[in-house]
Amino acid sequence: MADVIDLDYVSTLYRTHATDLGRLIEQQRRFRAATAAMTPQLDDIEAEITYLLLRDTRPERVMELGTFHGWSTTWILSALRDSGSGHLHSFDRIDNVVRNVPDGLADGRWTFVHGDVRERLADVPRDADYLFVDAAHTASFARWYLAELLPLVAAGAPVSVHDVHHGRRVLPLTEGAVLMGWMRERGVTGFTASRRRAPAAFAQLVALREELGLHGARGTTRNPMLWFTMPGSR
Asked: What pLDDT score does 234 carry?
């Protein structure tokens, strides 16, 4: 695991795991086609980077906040399967995901907690070594998870937050604005492959994926996700 998540690190992971990633993309295409109630939230590059970071860091305790129909859940569980270790704890107020995740992916590596995570904090794994956030995209909820949830995440753990970088700038009074302010205060560097926010990084990854013969499971590439490494001081 690199100290900072950046383009060089992500590019190396693409080359290292290209064969496994290609197989997983085919799996996810079949999964999407076979699942009637499926509205994927992650675009191709951000789903792939999530898988790659999980493969490289091999976390034991992964927390997913927001599951919807299970697209991100199956990417995460596939990474844990391919690594041979780790357990996913998923939280959501709706339980569509339990009807969609294949038993072969879920068995022995997944716990789903149905309810508002703000009322289920006792069920959150302590010292989680990967955190994935794709829930209520409001400033108030961002303030809550920064104050209450991130202190439970291990120092050095990768953190993924979806829907931050839809545009060239983060809008005020949003989840992204609150999160970016928190990062600035702590000197935390983030990485995104957003087509709007980071067009050069996006273009380089598109070219690399083409070189490696990877063409994505969805065919969408807005990629608003932000990644960073949990700082040592909380």
From this structure: 41
